[in-house]
Amino acid sequence: MTSVQRTLPTLRELLPDYCKAKKIKDSSKRRYESVLRVHFTDWQDRLVDVMSTPKFGEHCKQLGQTKGAAVVELIRGLIGALIRYINAVYGLKLASPFDRLASAGLLPDRAKPRPRLLQVESLPVWFAALDRLEQRPRAYLLVTLLTGMRKNEVRGLTRRDVDLHELVLTAPETKNGRSHSLPISEVLRSLLEPLCASLKPTDQVFSGVSADHAAQMAQRAGAPKFMLHDLRKLLATTGQKMGVTDAVMRRILNHTPPRTDVMYRHYVELTTTDVADGLSRIQGQLLHLCRMRDD
What's the whole-model pTM score? Predict the structure, then answer.
């Protein structure tokens, strides 16, 4: 039986196929579409094997030397992923020009994580400012702090994601594409139950709340400057200082273990019940830090 050679797609045509095959979220797909549209305007309607040409390599070199580290990382990651996909599906042997550029030292250093703006000693001032907000934005910020969920995961919660009977909170769409659940402690229940009282199953719990605007509202009310991701970092740092195990912290934060970590990728599976005690202790410590006052 002879194999049928597949007609190569253009870069523009390849992206939706790749996203479908890899089950990429719509938000990420739109971001990737923007990368091709903005940075590969003259290339996206050409066949994918154009990525093996010297001109394409030179274009990537220019991007690597003129764009910021974070943008270059995004572009490099997308082009590398597309090349690996087309090599597997279409039997090609293309190499990413960004890998060659990195080997030659022609790319900027990888972007460093942004430092945390909100420090532990500032939590009482931050917490006091939240008391000046309306119920929904206040609850949004506290739930973000006390769960360590990403801002859009909390913002996207619907009534059916909050099981007040089984006491389980579920974020169906997450960064790694897997549904993520956490136990609802008593403090979380006190925040979520009033908001859910009159909602239909598909209603959003934080309807009308803009994630970043909630942070801005808190700052206008007297909170120190902070990023919403700071709240996730604070939960992680607090858990680490308290000696909560790496396995429990990874489960709480919904972190995917490295490919080489066979133990946690294939063997260790923790449920919401398994992390309930650890998360409750972290929440208690965070609230204690929020309520502390200088003598």
Answer: 0.79
Report the relative pairing of strands 180-183 and 162-163 from DSSP bridges: unpaired
Helix residue ranges per DSSP H, the chain? 11-22, 26-39, 54-66, 69-90, 97-103, 123-130, 135-147, 151-155, 186-196, 211-220, 228-241, 246-253, 262, 272-291
| Number of neighbours of residue 125 by Cβ within 10 angstroms | 14
Per-residue model confidence as pLDDT tens digits over 116-141 = 999 999 999 999 999 999 999 999 99
Quick: pLDDT tens for 200-227.
999 999 999 999 999 999 999 999 999 9
Report the SS3 class of residue 26: helix
CATH class for the region spanning 120-291: mainly alpha
What is the C-alpha to C-alpha distance for residues 32 and 272, in angstroms, rounded to an integer?
Answer: 33
Classify each residue of 163-200 as buried b or exposed e, where b means 16 or more C-beta atoms within 10 Å of its C-beta: eeeebbbbbeebbeeeebbbbbbebbeebbeebbeeee
